[in-house]
């Protein structure tokens, strides 16, 4: 996937002043909740039986797509856990951690649904790896691990790419129920990105929470926030 860099706004560093109570409440109760509500939708989908796909080749197609999505859900779960240990104990760090835990909880539900779907089609769910490489994001300035706000930028880039990936891949699925489930997961990923952008706005950044009517490779640079 092409990576574009766009210098937007600067954010407070680790030494940021404490958030006001109203701003803290907006960040936690508004931005976080917006992602969590959508996160439960995917699990309501009815998982397919092996006979739901039209042919063995269709089943193989769907297993491959689902396992690819599952790989990135594993990556997201790992990334949030890895980054959480690098957050400070400041108000900003605590706020970022709250969002991270909420988003990670959704990713765990996505992981479980996708694994069950792969199994229901007769496939073997891809297993989680011990660690994942996010160096391309750091190299392109799409976040970093050196401050709370840069960790949030990295999470935003990962969530944006997840949303884009689901919009591209869901149409390739052959099993109708999986198309519905995949679309709902994709909408949750975009909600995660929106929640993170809302958090940045709550911290004083002058930006649009939803920067465009679509989320795609063509307008990816309008969604992410570079270091």
Task: Provide a quick synopsis of the model.
With 227 residues, this protein is mainly alpha-helical. It has a single domain (54-223), classed as Ferritin, core subunit, four-helix bundle (Ferritin).
Here the CATH topology equals Ferritin
Based on CA atoms alone, the radius of gyration comes out at 18 Å
> How much β-strand is present in the residues?
under 5%
Give the domain tally: 1
The CATH architecture name reads: Up-down Bundle
Global shape? globular
Overview features:
single chain; Ferritin; 7 helices; mainly alpha; 227 residues
Outline the structure in words.
- With about 230 residues, the protein is mostly helical.
- The chain has seven helices and no strands.
- It has helices at about 20-40, 55-85, 90-120, 135-140, 150-170, 175-200, 220-225.
- The radius of gyration is 18 Å and the shape is globular.
- The two termini are about 20 Å apart.
- The model is unreliable at about 1-45 (pLDDT under 50).
